[in-house]
Amino acid sequence: MKDSRAAAAPPVVPVDAKARWSAAMEKARLRDAEFTTVSGVPLEPVYGPDDVATDFERDLGWPGEFPFTRGVHASMYRGRLWTMRQFAGFGTASQTNERFKFLLDHGQTGLSVAFDFPTLMGYDSDHAHSIGEVGQVGVAISSLEDMETLMGGIPMDRVSTSMTINGPAPILLAFYIACGEKQGVDPTKLRGTVQNDILKEFQAQHAWLVPPDPALRMITDTMAYCSEHVPQWNTISISGYHIREAGSTAAQELAFTLANGMEYVRRGVAAGMDVDTFAPRLSFFFDSHLDFFEEICKFRAARRIWARKMRDVYGAEDPRSWMIRFHTQTAGVTLTAQQPENNIVRTALEALAAVIGGTQSLHTNSMDETLSLPTEKAVKIALRTQQVLAEESEVAHVADPLAGSYFIEAQTNRLERDAEAYFGEIDRRGGVVPCIEAGYIQREIHRSAVEYQRAVERGRKRVVGVNCYVEDREAHPDIELHRIDPAVEKEQGARLASLRQRRDGNRAQSALDDVREACRDGGNLLERFIAAAHAYCTLGEIGAVLREEFGEYVEPKIL
Amino acid sequence: MKDAETISARLLSGDRLALSRMISWAEDGDDRFPASLSRIYSKVGRGWRTGITGPPGAGKSTLVNELARVFRQGERTVGILAVDPSSPFTGGALLGDRIRMEERTKDPGVYIRSMASRESHGGIARATVDACDVMDAFGFDELLIETVGVGQAEYDVVTAADTVLVVLCPGAGDGIQAMKAGLLEVADVLVVNKKDRDGADRLLVDLEEAVHTREVRTDQWEVPVLPTNAVAGEGVEAVIDAVHRHRAHLEAGLLESVRRRRRVDQVKRVVGERLEDELWGGRRLGDRVEEGLDRASTPYDVAEEVLASILGGNLGAPAGDSRSEAARR
Amino acid sequence: MAQRKIKVLVAKPGLDGHDRGAKTVATVLRDHGMEVVYTGLHQTPEMIAEVALQEDVDVVGLSILSGAHMSLFPRVRKELEVRGMGHVLLTGGGIIPAEDMAELEKEGFTRLFGPGTRTDDIAEWIQTAVEKSRASEGV
Description:
The complex is a heterotrimer. Chain B is an alpha/beta fold.
């Protein structure tokens, strides 16, 4: 727990007081509990000046100043509150369009699109692999036509939209850009984010389209195209969320996410771009788990590590390249199916950690998500939770309010050290992609997931309603379920069939040929995708060309 | 499928469920297995058995998958046996090799069976040879046996395979480790996978040198050293070509005696297992050992006493052959 | 002497990539002395049934968090039956609403497990169920 640099600092606390405290601790009878973080890291009973060697100027500084430990903006939430961005999407494009309008009417300030699994994997709704999955966990978008319905009546120059998609991300972005053009909105006016973080897909979330190397090329193509033509678009949201949800510890989430970020930077530079042309558009996405303090420290450590790496290792000169701007989502895995109303409390705590941690935007989970898709009522409570934090709690007035706490600074330093150790290990194993191919990162995550599960089952970690304060299954409150009508699949299929009839077949075919050619000759793929979108080529058709040209990914053996 | 007669008839008629069940019987030591095997044994000996061994992470499963793919292009049917380690503590096992062979699962000309090593430690399972016999009788042209691959001494594959491929890759343990572990001694074909990685050229050179400086093998076979990049299917044809050449080499001479020796090994194994059951299955001998130890005799003295009681006057004159065999183990 | 083990296929049907639960359960079943085949992600019902046949498993456990359970469970069951594997114990878990679970259980899917289940309970349930079905089989 101790910082090696601490040795030189003179003790501030009188030695005899500390000795008396130590003796009292020795004698004290302690509760039968495991005193660790939720990630299993042992904690001291109290922290003092000996535990930290933080240098104010070097390690903390001021908000908006290097190394940004305390936040990326000088004014933080006094200037602007975080964006309340609830992830939503289900069924058909028109159903999701209605939900979007509902959320905008209730004060939400940005859109966030959840896609269904066929879309996430680059299949059309009428593909054999899509049976039973269309519209289930998100909205089905198979063509520009679906995107036009999704954004119908929503002024695309006035909302910012986040799209959670990765393998086929550049294709969906192409649909979005083309849709904007149809609405008469110039691409330079579009604001938003596409997740587009394929590395963590191979590591944790597993919705991919093609193997790592061609997938990374599509990402650099996207960064290159957007830096010129869609300058307000965040071309990637480097995500720890899914890594954490797959079972990692806080330190692993931090380390693997930032390692992925650095890999994208290296690829961008290797593709001939100046780091400062694309780094300011990189954004991040973290989980906010239940360990309140550990999470706050994770956010602080993330900002500090990234700033140092970007400036000192990758030579970025634009301060915007040094800043981590991130979205946060409360931890889905901490929700319980048992006594689901308790999830409102869990989510509120996690949201508070994210706000104190200085997030730029936030999604709060709905209490019923372990049962099925969230209902409108549950979504509203989740959004109201953020509004209570923002409007009633007064927590947003002071930037980085916990800085200087011995405990907070010691944990922040500890997380930075743990992350550095992983960076070293990943380098030793040849980098992120070889680590994925060998299954190293996946195995590290799996190991932590199993350890946590064991801790819960042995009662070493307590979960209310699951292994303590358990109630009968019968006592479940009636929670209304939100179901997807199976007719959605049929409707989508019919719409696609009709689209293929109506469109100009020759134009579609030649746009697909252009995509194929770019796969081979290295032309910018996003540019070809946009042309294909305008020709009403479907996601599945474009995806099939990519699979044919680049091959399919085979998972390594993890177990 | 409750008796030997039905299962063997169904297996010979091409029923894959019967094939699967008979392998389970072999694994579980089911007492219906010997009778079923005898009904299909005349069909054993047509398929070619290739063993694939090497350290963890060398790409064995990927290579197996690619070998199967190329065999299928030549219209040859393929049976694959992939062995994974059992936990010595719980007896359980995670069988995950087929994750790398997913494409082959869709092919009706390929059969893949995972097998836990259970109590065996030589890289294959006790039932591996039995399972190969069953797959062979079923009619697969090519049998591929992937060993455990935990980096321990995995030499038992020679008792199961006609041709042994040793797969290495740069970085992971390296050739020197493999040489120390004696893996090179069992190789009929050496494969350097991930040939585009740093260190692959060096590994190729080292292995070629090791192969050439060794004494000429008694079977006169010259071990080829071949580079592959299995994940991209590169170099796989050359490996298959080497397997074919090795097959032709054996068929021109030693094949019958090699296979004969394998059957002798199998007989010895079965006799050993049965004896073990007979001797230690009941409490009788176990009690005797306890008594002897209670009298503070040394383990050797107790063993002599037990052996004398089983073998009577025959003790002390074992056949030279089996003694040297025992001494080597 | 060789002994009969319980062999389980843990499979992820459909396109959903959430494999934390599947891999954790596979690991726990291994720790309970079972031999566990893991197929990896994105399996079709046909592939799952084919693997079950090739591996001659006692149990198939499906992990589904995509909401497609009402379609996938019956399709896997049908593919198993087509291959003469109707005797296999078909179970599973994931985000499955209680009423869907009840309906699937009524349709003969032995037992399904929701979020918060102790993995040891799953292992113990499998152990008992397999012993029972073996006893009734008379082998």
